[in-house]
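for the writeup, i need someone to sanity check this before i put it in the appendix. the sequnce is what the collaborator sent (i think, or maybe the updated version? ugh). structure was predicted straight from it, no edits. if anything looks off just tell me and ill rerun, i have time this weekend
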Amino acid sequence: MKYVFLVGDGMGDYSYEELDGKTVLEYARTPNLNGLARRSTLGLVDTIPEGLPPGSDVGNLALMGYDPQQYYTGRAPLEAAGMGLTLGERDIAIRCNLVTLSDDYTIMRDYSAGQIPTEHAHKLIRLITRELGTKDVEFHPGVSYRHLLVWRNAIIEPNDLKLTPPHEIPDQPIEEYLPHGPNSQVLIELIRRSWDVLKVLNSPANSIWLWSAGRKPQMPALKERFGITGSVISAVDLIKGLGVCAGLTVLEVPGATGYLDTNYAGKVEHALQSLRKQDFVYVHIEAPDECGHQGRLDLKIRAIEDFDEKLVGPLLAGLEQQCNEFSVIVTTDHYTPVRDRVHVAAPVPFMLYRNDHQQTNAAVDFHERAAEASDLRIRHGHELLALLLHRASL
């Protein structure tokens, strides 16, 4: 038996008048998802435990089978693992975005600096390293706007800090959202010093933004827990890091960008190849989340349609040819509503398909309202993986 987990990041959303009262997922053309839904079990799953932030870190940690209330230590340490960085007991990792502030540095204009290209972003991070880095404060380049600060032998405790994700404050004044807590002035100073450093280049990124501090997580591998081997496919270091911590093989797909131009065909190819030798693959698509943060209905529709056409369809066709028995879960980690442009904790739709035990759901499509109508709800998101692996029953 082969097991496939497909995650469209931030796919969940609300209904909109301009979409004839439908949600984005409901409105988008998704023949492959809808066809699969009619042969699957549909339901809702709670991915974000009460009291934890509704981010991709918490949501995907749960979907990978780990209780966030037990294992969550912050987003940045997971990204550090994805970058191959080693954290000591006294080290902390902090997410470092390249962002665009208003000309007077008071308003958060763009959390992604216009989806800054990775090559250009690396030049900026090298400059930041030269001007702001020390033997204890290290800057590490990631993908597009997503980078990392590692503070060796840090004098601050992550749990004492109040740090705000930049995508949660679109077009808002930044002053009250700058780092708070004991010794947080060090982080504020780094942010403000970056303004002069980045002035020298003609770039949409005119500031760094520091958030999501944490220490190295301690997690048992999925092989230890379930006896399976597997891989993870994603463009973003967060999901790669989750895979590393879970003992999965991280598959690097050329051209994987975390946006609309990502290499879907490469992800399908790598997923199918991995399943020839391994039991499980976790495929993550970032684009719907990014388009939600941008407040673009048209782009989020496109992202979901691409997810359906370029990932779900070809991957299912490949599985049918290659595997005698397989199970697939399709879901999302949280809502990223276009109208709000921020993450929202809400029960999200999922469907479970088993090619050896097909359901019959005539005229049922895959979207939020269809999942709500099913009356099936998984209250603890980390239990969903056990359903896929046949270690729990509905």
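The chain is about 30% helix and 20% strand. The CA atoms of residues 3 and 280 lie 5 Å apart.
thx in advance!!
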